């Protein structure tokens, strides 16, 4: 599938998601800082997706198999972690993840996100390119049982930094 076709599919899926509740939650003073950071990140990507177009000369192919595998992995994630989430929210998150990994080539979590104990996602500029690293990607791979969505993230495990 062409990236432009996938983007249009994602846009169609996202048009049905109502962001008002998320936007209202962000206004609350007692919101958990990590929840706030994730909500802001998701909304930022939502608006980016809706405004994004891929010019014909920059379009590229994405394997259908990879798209299907990633979507399935995200479904397993929700089944294991958050089965009570609304279907529209699950589709919203799935769409953002597919977009970030396969089209935008950005991390699945915001840069600077606090995963505890100083672990985070960070970036470096190398040869005029942005390279993303994650302090927990390697550990997540080691403990993954039923699903491992991190394998689709563009971040390099920080343990491999400099290699």
Explained architecture:
With 163 residues, the protein is mostly helical. The protein folds into 2 domains: 3-104, no CATH class; 121-160, no CATH class. It contains 6 helices and 3 strands. It has helices at residues 3-14, 20-27, 33-51, 64-81, 87-104, 137-143; strands spanning 121-126, 129-134, 156-157. Strands 1-2-3 form a 3-stranded mixed sheet, with no helix packed on it.
How many helices? The count is 6
Mean pLDDT: 90
Uncertain runs: none
Give the structural class: mainly alpha
Major sheet characteristics: 3 strands, mixed
State the separation between the terminal residues, measured CA to CA.
33 Å
Strand tally, please?
Answer: 3
Strand order of the largest sheet: 1-2-3
Helix percent reads: 40-55%
Tell me the overall shape: globular
**Number of structural domains:** 2
Helix-strand sequence: HHHHHEEHE
Strand content: 5-15%
Radius of gyration computed on alpha carbons: 16 Å
């Amino acid at each position: 599938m062409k990236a432009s076709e996938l983007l249009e599919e994602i846009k169609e899926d996202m048009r049905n998601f109502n962001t008002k509740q998320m936007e209202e939650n962000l206004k609350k003073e007692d919101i958990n800082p990590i929840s706030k950071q994730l909500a802001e990140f998701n909304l930022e990507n939502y608006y980016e997706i809706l405004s994004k177009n891929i010019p014909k000369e920059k379009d590229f192919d994405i394997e259908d198999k990879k798209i299907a595998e990633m979507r399935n992995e995200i479904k397993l994630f929700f089944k294991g972690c958050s089965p009570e989430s609304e279907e529209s929210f699950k589709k919203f998150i799935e769409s953002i993840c597919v977009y970030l990994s396969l089209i935008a080539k950005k991390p699945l979590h915001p840069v600077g996100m606090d995963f505890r104990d100083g672990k985070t996602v960070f970036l470096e500029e190398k040869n005029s390119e942005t390279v993303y690293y994650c302090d927990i990607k390697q550990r997540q791979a080691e403990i993954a049982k039923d699903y491992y969505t991190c394998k689709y993230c563009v971040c390099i495990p920080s343990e491999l930094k400099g290699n």
